[in-house]
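Please produce the structure of this protein holding iron/sulfur cluster.
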Amino acid sequence: MTEQGRLAYLPMPVVVDAAYASRLQEVGLPERRYRFSQPCVEGACSQWTGEGCAVIDHVLDDPPDDARAPDARETRPGTLPTCAIRRDCRWFAQRGAAACGACPTIVADIGGTATYRRPG
Ligand code: SF4
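Below is the modeled complex.
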């Protein structure tokens, strides 16, 4: 998460192992500052609608606030964020460039329940 409140992308995927996860935890709730990815597990995820991921549909079709609406400047050809996981990205496969326009605004833990529920 940058000071401007938008995610920046890593040029190469970084594997988060136990030691790295532990270091991230030491400085606070990592999901407020990073968004992590993993292979989509479809029906094994509570966000799966049966046809796709409810998170990106929610953000694009019913943005929680204006700041999360897709930024058209980032969905024109050649302007998509440089992203190391696009080839495997569920959101991109599901919603195309529009997903990439909203993607930098989506953080797992914003202290509410719009995109994330704490267990328990
Ligand atoms: S929505 Fe686009 S920018 Fe975001 S992770 Fe997927 S491919 Fe990358």
